[in-house]
Amino acid sequence: MTAGDAGSEHARRAPRADSAIPGLPPWADEDTPVFVISIAAEFSGMHAQTLRSYDRIGLVSPGRASGGGRRYSVRDIALLREVQRLSQEEGVNLAGIKRIIELEREVDQLTDRLAELTDELARSQARLQALTEQAGRPGDLLPARRTQSVVVWQPARRRRAAPDDPDRES
What we know:
Blueprint: H1 37-44, H2 48-57, E1 63-64, E2 70-71, H3 74-88, H4 94-135
Antiparallel strand pairs: 1-2
Keywords: Coiled coil, DNA-binding
Region (Disordered): 1-25
Domain HTH merR-type: 34-103
């Protein structure tokens, strides 16, 4: 996932950097890819080749400059630090770290969706409450679907079995 992916703000979540990273332009936020690989390597405490390797296997996917060079955001650097911590302090292999990152992103997305649905439910309950108060009695309002089609139901006629019908009862 690159910095240019549409709707990727929530999908790119990573732990926040413990310390402020110097050199961030005033117009940039923590998702803006601004740091070249050498600076990102320095801030994350890793070698630039390690960052390239992590990009190839999909652990951290930095943005790209117009010329194709990697550009890392503050969030990317925080994620690199977390990868290093999990690897060195927790002893998790890279496949495990990749899965942890995927699951954390999924949890973030689900948390965001839950918040959206909770807000929508609260709005719906408030609308229902307002309509109920407007009607005067709780039983006065029933949702009705307006339609212009008419459906006529007729009971099915019993079919007489043919004399050579094997299902016919004798």
